[in-house]
């Protein structure tokens, strides 16, 4: 089986050294395996994603010496695909409308801690669908809502297979099998109020659509693999191999982020930095 992997940035700002490290890690993995390297633009956030940032992604990656297959999949061109995926979950009775605001959910969890499940990102909400009449009244009033995946419904749908869910993680020390525990997310939002989808739904859908065999990304997304493995099982998608790499940090140990404008690739290039210098700084040899 030929390795297929992808780098999937969101054009919400300029790329920085951390993005460069991730992109190069993915690109070199594809090169070393004589595999395929895909670039995917994850721009479902229609408020924060900007065309100028997307153009900068192409410029920065080309400057670093990366090339990729075309056409590039831009998620904002495929909202219909994600709507169809959501409808498939609806038909199976696996999702429910959630009309609560974030503040209402946090207040409810504070009053009744049993409604939450602990996860790396903080407490996760576990709820239920409203009575049909109450839900219809809210819809008729135009109340916004998100779609949440019911973990309990997913457990019932998969039966014993739920408890057997696992994913394969490649590490510098070898390959290991990790038991998937998607319940750490509570009932996750699968389709947001503002755009009708989510990172989790769109990413899992596209990885299957694009025949991605290896998901190589930062360790900050390690916990997401637990939920993604569940979604793959619910959709009967192939299971990719995962590899979560270390994150770059600054001198204080803080993770590099888009807010650190001085560390953007554009700023470094404009200051006279050479691509080969960036590669060496990140631990890669020029190809």
From TrEMBL:
InterPro entries per the UniProt record, alphabetical: aa-tRNA-synth_I_CS, Glu/Gln-tRNA-synth, Glu/Gln-tRNA-synth_Ib_cat-dom, GluQ/Sye, Rossmann-like_a/b/a_fold
Family note: Belongs to the class-I aminoacyl-tRNA synthetase family.
GO cellular component: cytosol
GO BP annotations, alphabetical order: glutamyl-tRNA aminoacylation
Keywords assigned by UniProt, alphabetized: Aminoacyl-tRNA synthetase, ATP-binding, Ligase, Metal-binding, Nucleotide-binding, Protein biosynthesis, Zinc
UniProt GO molecular function: ATP binding; glutamate-tRNA ligase activity
Pfam families, alphabetized: tRNA-synt_1c
Coiled coil feature spans: none
Protein name: tRNA glutamyl-Q(34) synthetase GluQRS
Domain Glutamyl/glutaminyl-tRNA synthetase class Ib catalytic: 3-279
Listed Gene3D superfamilies: HUPs
């Amino acid at each position: 089986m030929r390795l297929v992997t992808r780098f999937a940035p969101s054009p919400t700002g300029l790329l920085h050294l951390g993005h460069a490290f991730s992109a190069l890690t993915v690109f070199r993995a594809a090169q070393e395996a004589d595999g395929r390297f895909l670039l995917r633009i994850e721009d479902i956030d229609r408020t924060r994603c900007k065309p100028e940032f997307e153009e900068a992604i192409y410029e920065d990656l080309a400057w670093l010496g990366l090339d990729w297959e075309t056409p590039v999949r831009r998620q904002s061109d495929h909202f219909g695909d994600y709507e169809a995926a959501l409808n498939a979950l609806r038909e199976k009775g696996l999702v429910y409308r959630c009309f609560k605001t974030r503040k209402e959910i946090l207040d409810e969890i504070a009053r009744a801690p049993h409604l939450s499940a602990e996860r790396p990102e903080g407490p996760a909400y576990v709820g239920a669908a409203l009575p049909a009449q109450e839900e219809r009244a809210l819809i008729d009033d135009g109340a916004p809502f998100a779609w949440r995946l019911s973990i309990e419904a997913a457990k019932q749908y998969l039966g014993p297979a739920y408890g057997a869910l696992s994913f394969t993680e490649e590490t510098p020390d070898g390959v290991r099998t990790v038991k998937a525990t998607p319940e750490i997310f509570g009932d996750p939002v699968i389709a947001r109020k503002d755009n009708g989808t989510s990172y989790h739904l769109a990413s899992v859908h596209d990885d299957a659509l694009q025949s991605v065999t290896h998901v190589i990304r930062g360790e900050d997304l390690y916990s997401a693999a637990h939920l993604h493995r569940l979604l793959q099982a619910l959709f009967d998608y192939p299971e990719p191999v995962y590899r979560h790499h270390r994150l770059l940090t600054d001198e204080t140990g803080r993770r590099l982020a888009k807010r650190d404008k001085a560390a953007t690739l554009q700023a470094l290039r404009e200051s006279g930095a050479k691509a080969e210098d960036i590669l060496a700084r990140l631990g890669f040899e020029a190809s």
